[in-house]
Amino acid sequence: MADRSIYGSIIFKKMSLTKFPPIFRLLGLMVILALVASSINAGQWAEAEKLIHSPTLDFAQARQALTIYERLLPPDGQGPPQLLTRLAQVCFILGDLAEEKQRRQFYQSGRRYAESLLQARPEAVEGHYWLAMHLCGLADVGSMVQGRRLLPRILQELHRALALDETYDQAGAHRVLGRIYYEAPGWPFSVGDLDKSLRHLSAAVRLAPETSTNHLYLAETLLRLGKTAQAGQEFQAVLRSSRHAIHPPGLADDRRQAQRHLTELRVPDNW
Description:
By secondary structure, this protein is mostly helical. It has helices spanning 2-14, 22-52, 59-71, 81-97, 100-120, 125-141, 144-164, 168-183, 194-207, 212-224, 228-240, 250-264. It is globular and about 55 Å long.
């Protein structure tokens, strides 16, 4: 309310709308209301951004941020690309942080936001990438049959994202493709291919060396390929990394996994 009174006092002291014909008075009031709304929206956006970038981000904070972003969305759901991108991203974070029974709903919501984004900007990386991510989430919480059905579209969208901007989201398309080729069964059952996994994850580490998940996934691929010494180096890199692929608290999880692998390999911390 303070913002509203400030805007009103400044503008009405400088000009009296009663001096103008009705149509101009109406236009003037519309401009004033737009300025007030813009100020309120900017404040809400800043509040949500602060929440989502918190180093201690948890489910409650992410849920609060989503509520704020959703309030900024027009009734028709066709918001600006920046807002749709953030909505898709936060839904994916919530899908990762939520309890098992809640995860699907966030991936479904994120999928809708990504599809709206893709419709608005088909030649931009964000829509393709976040659609792929939410399809991955739905495959993860669904049945094996559903996962196999979604896989071709996931690969299609990730390769499109890769072609548009391979650096986006800390080399996210490389990271996710590399993990798919690591986890999936090999031919003729599915698309699993450790050489492709190695190629994509090496690119992810090259493009985003500060991201712990890139190093962790590369290390696990190297380990499966029998390249133990190189895997150990990548596990060590996880311990030195400063960012997680999805949300800040995930960095500690990546470090714990890397340390477990190093212990199993009997590699000292200062190796």
